[in-house]
Amino acid sequence: MDRRIDVSLEDKKQSKVSSAGLSIVSYCLASIAMTVINISALKGLNVINFRDFNWTDTKAWFPVSFLLAVVIYTGSKSLQYLQIPVYTIFKNLTIILIAYGETIWFGGSISRLAFLSFLLMVLSSLVAASEDILNAFSSLEPSGSATGYCWMFTNCISSAAYLLVMRKRIKVTAFKDWDSMAYNNALSVPLLVVASLIREDWSAASLDRNFPESNRYLLLSTIAFSGAAAVGISYTTAWCVRTTSSTTYSMVGALNKLPVAASGLIFFNDPATPTSISAIAIGFVAGIMQLCLSLQTATKMSIEEIQENVENLNFSEAGPSNAATQSRAEKKARQALQGLGLKKVPGVTRVVLRRPRNVMLVATNPEVQTAPGSGIHIVFGEFKVEDPSQLQAASQLAGQEGQDKSESKKPEDIMTEMNTQAANISEGKGKDVEEDGPVDETGVDAKDIELVMAQVGCPRSKAVKVLKENNGDLINAIMAASD
């Protein structure tokens, strides 16, 4: 008789476990399917736009969707055997795994502040769930516990891999946020359907147990609402991973539980115990640390983007079109800088950049901005080539003229006169100083030749020669002619 009771209890326990797994997978399937339907409808109404599905992008994005399906399925199986506090602890530990994965895959390093914020977040969840964890461990059976930890370990690995692979694939495919969301959800549905059909019980009795008639419509309505809300969650997930990092996204996911916990104490009369208050306080400290790190990362990424835009400018092309291109690039750079909290540095009248071969790039009356605490300065202005040897000669000439005149000319004024004389020579108004007679100027812009002659004071033949040797690059040609 006792044996029969034990078997009956075991059957009920297995039925409950299977029921839980089916309900979670069914909920995820319905929510994701609703997301796909919603974004397809929005595209049909021309509210949003994303790429049409094609085989090339599908193959490139399939690993991401596969890992998402693994994350959802292993998470549902973990919750069958483990209590929610234990599950939350392991999910927060995944943040550290993701951070080290980013250092290996994308380079960089983990600062002490970042590592400390990770530890504080894990400590916060440990403190908050300390009593529940003790009760959970005492109530777990060895067999169920081992199975649950296996599923949990798989979920942690797949969660880290999912976010890291997603960040990599977004760069490879150049997906926009709507593209990532559409492909992610559309490719995940068939994978979850296959896994659920293989592993779960889809009998009529199981469906009645998971969708009881008494609250069936309420449950389906909740799933539909969740699918609509999942559109925003999916979009912001891709947005966050693309613009920040997988680690930052994971930390935000852990931190968003803190306002919920605090609102429970304030609005729902949850007991304000020392344990709960300490957990929230520790979590908020970790959040402040992560916010500081995120701001530093955003500043660094924006500055790198600006530097890339500046490096892509083609200074060898003269004329109005090139001026317009530089103006557009400068406007884009300024727009990117507006949200970085930069401060203008007052009192800067001259900025000098020293280049090889004793050449200097000088900007007069530039606009200089700096990011507080970063040591980075950004200069907006027109840079001109300046040769120290010419300045020295101009100073000596000014000194000689000063012996006969009460007021000597400034070196800058003498430099202007020298440049004017060089320009006159290039236009044929002065003495012809060409050394080699007629010069083949095919493929070289006449304005570039005159500019090199004016800046360096070299013969026309040499200006043509250095421009051809440097493929029309004006800056390198001027530096070569200065030798």
TrEMBL record:
Residues 402-413 have a biased composition (Basic and acidic residues). It is found in: Cytoplasm. The chain crosses the membrane at residues 20-39, 60-76, 146-166, 218-241, 274-293. Keywords: Membrane, Transmembrane, Transmembrane helix. Residues 391-446 are annotated as: Disordered. Residues 391-401 have a biased composition (Low complexity). Residues 327-392 form the NAC-A/B domain. InterPro entries: EGD2/NACA0like, EmrE-like, NAC-like_UBA, NAC_A/B_dom_sf, Nas_poly-pep-assoc_cplx_dom. Signal peptide: none annotated. GO terms for cellular component: nascent polypeptide-associated complex. SUPFAM superfamilies: Multidrug resistance efflux transporter EmrE. Residues 433-443 have a biased composition (Acidic residues). Belongs to the NAC-alpha family. This is Nascent polypeptide-associated complex subunit alpha.
